[in-house]
Design a protein that fits this description.
2 copies of one chain form a homodimer. Chain A has 408 residues and is α/β, with parallel strands linked by helices. Chain A has a domain of 172 residues: Carbamate kinase (3-Layer(aba) Sandwich), CATH 3.40.1160.10. The first copy, chain A, is globular, with a radius of gyration of 23 Å. At the A-B interface, helix 1, helix 2, helix 3 and helix 4 of A face helix 1, helix 2, helix 3 and helix 4 of B.
């Protein structure tokens, strides 16, 4: 008998009909002799509706009170899914994050999970009951409701799987796995049967929105066996996220091509090339609560250098404003910046042991006349910033250049 | 410094604009040096929307799970009202029923309050904080969410006032007090400055929907000073529900005329007039979960009598079905019944010490050619069942006959 945690996203529970379908799927898994914990998101559109309502009251809603009302979205879904299960004769019981309880810190709207009580769930499971838990939410030490931030339901699923030492955590979504590239861009893209955690982390952080990055980190840390599946297709095997050391299978050199248009680039020109200058630029940016993604600084000459980085597009204007006094203070020459960029990344653990990946990538882009504006690399990925209009073209030619359209 | 509990119903918090108005009103009361606890209902329409959603999953929704999802309506409102208060500079903090905590039994969808923790609220109040509590809901000993049933937000308000020994519990609604009759029926109806608890209980149970009857009982039991006010009008004094022995003021003989069209009448004809027969008829009705209101049995003759009672119109068909085997079993002659009836009641504590009220009422109805089908009396009320079509006429002529259109 296996213990399986299944997580269903907002689209999968978007209508009463779909909730009934989820109940049927859960019932099938249970009928095969498994113990099942289900984590659900709010019905699609509901979280946005609640946030919009809050903004009619306060343009910057109070975080504690926002969590109180936004968490109701998942609370409605757990009630409905538990009803749907009971309706088809499956014993079920719903729990909010506070009821489980999923203890978090008090960072409203982006809380972190500290601890999960498993006793109550274990008792229900042993009684043959399916447990339906509200994703995305928890409770702090004082009993206030917290939420984990966007995509937090994935994290709830993985955290429950870790706490219960589940055999597998299944993330049901509207795609049937992780692909070598976005199939809307590359028709030849193939579903990966497996992908390593490190690759998945890079893919997630690079704009492949199949899994929320925090949940992948969490799964990696607690060695949770994670699988991505479709809640619409008939039962397939999806994509299993593997631990490199666990699974003996041969890894492909490159697993996939990810792309993201969510960023903007900023270059501070003619920066005095002296120690501490990076901190003088990025310190104020961090203080303004802006996350910086790529950072590139080349060797300087004549005591000056250019310092470039990318930020989320939503933070672009704020970042420029933050830098105005900084540029004056450090006596830099000025700023050039742009929003119309895309980041395209090649991800694969095989890169570590294979030379020539970068040059293949750069040559491929050059042959298409695509100019590379920034480059950043890690052990298992190469990211380039290019003009936004070439995004699809770049993804397609790189996908082909690395043979990802060929069955392995 | 007074401690005041204010309860706002669904219409009063029906839109973001109205929630802001409530916040302004709360702020004014606090600025006058009062400590304020606010109890709110779900935004109007929200509870029905949630119940409809549940019924798309289960025609008879599981009660525990129904409470889980329906309770989210109030949870959204507390978040919004706390935001609205903070937005205008008032310290505020929201609490769900479980957070307060309002401990109830486990009778889902119609739970009863057992105990309320006041420590946390007291600490917040002493810190100058307005407390915003979700009405209609609580939590049972196992931590499951419960609801108190329709109108339960009034009960929450009164129960909190009792627990905190509040100086006054103010129920804000869409009318500005209790009237001598429904102003839509009797244009001359006057707002009562005071009404006794007993009268209010009769009025509430007789179809005057200003206050939910359980909340009035609760207030009477715990000696909570209760006031009904309008959340739309400028601040008036509303109607104060008084304890007869507390307040020295002279009571009117008759306080008001109430009417209700929610009932149906059933008469079992030719019932053997022997001990235990009432139980044989009403026992099965009670077992079918039907509440019986008026019960009338006259002296029999020839060993037979007729046994009449009224039930909620929604229970009418079920009751008839329940009685079919009973009628055979007790060898009664048969059943006559009707849905097209109304109950009109004259309420007033002065009845106790004044003779002739009943005869005035019966004469007044007779003069209009209105036939009385059933009569039932208590110490402070006289109820008659009449043909539904005469409802308004009966209310108007009784209102006039007892001089309720004259200022006191």
């Amino acid at each position: 008998m296996a213990l399986i945690v299944q997580k269903y996203g907002g689209t999968s529970v978007g209508t009463p009909e779909r909730i009934k379908n989820v109940a049927q799927r859960v019932a099938r898994w249970q009928a095969r002799g498994n113990q099942i914990v289900v984590v659900v998101s709010a019905m699609s559109g509901e979280t946005n509706r609640l946030i919009a309502l809050a903004k009619e009251i306060q343009s910057q809603p109070d975080p504690r009170e926002l969590d109180v009302m936004v968490s109701t979205g998942e609370q409605v879904t757990i009630g409905l899914l538990a009803m749907a299960l009971k309706e088809i004769g499956v014993k079920a019981r719903s729990y909010t994050g506070a009821q489980v309880k999923i203890l978090t810190d008090s960072a409203y709207t982006k809380a972190r999970i500290l601890k999960i009580d498993e006793d109550r769930m274990r008792a229900d499971l042993n009684a043959g009951c399916v447990i339906v838990v509200a994703g995305f939410q928890g409770v702090d030490e004082l009993g206030s409701i917290t939420t984990l931030g966007r995509g937090g339901s994935d994290t709830t699923g993985v955290a429950l799987a870790a706490a219960l030492k589940a055999d597998e955590c299944q993330i049901y979504t509207d795609v049937d796995g992780v692909y070598t590239a976005d199939p809307r861009i590359v028709p030849d893209a193939r579903r990966l049967k497996t992908i390593t955690f490190e690759e998945m982390l890079e893919m997630a952080s690079l704009g492949s929105k199949v899994l929320q990055i925090r949940s992948v980190e969490f799964a990696g840390k607690y060695k949770v066996r994670l699988r991505v599946l479709s809640s619409f297709a008939d039962e397939g095997e999806g994509t299993l996220i593997t631990f490199e050391d666990d699974e003996g299978m041969e890894q492909a050199i490159i697993s996939g091509i990810a792309s993201s248009r969510d960023e903007a680039k900023i270059t501070v020109l003619g920066v005095p090339d002296r120690p501490g200058i990076a901190y003088q630029i990025l310190g104020p940016v961090g203080d303004a609560n802006v996350d910086v993604d790529m950072i590139v600084q080349n060797v300087g000459h004549d005591g000056l250098t250019d310092f470039s980085f990318t930020v989320q597009r939503g933070d672009y204007q704020k970042t420029l404003k933050t830098l105005e006094p900084v540029v004056k203070h450090i006596q830099a020459r000025g700023i050039v910046s742009g929003e119309k960029i895309a980041k395209v990344s090649i991800v694969g653990v095989g890169m570590r042991s294979h030379a020539g990946i970068a040059s293949t990538a750069f040559r491929t882009l050059a042959e298409e006349g695509i100019n590379i504006e920034m480059i950043s690399t890690s052990e298992i990925k190469i990211s380039v910033v290019i003009d936004e209009k070439y995004t699809e073209l770049a993804v397609r030619v790189l996908h082909k250049a690395f043979g990802l359209d060929q069955a392995r």
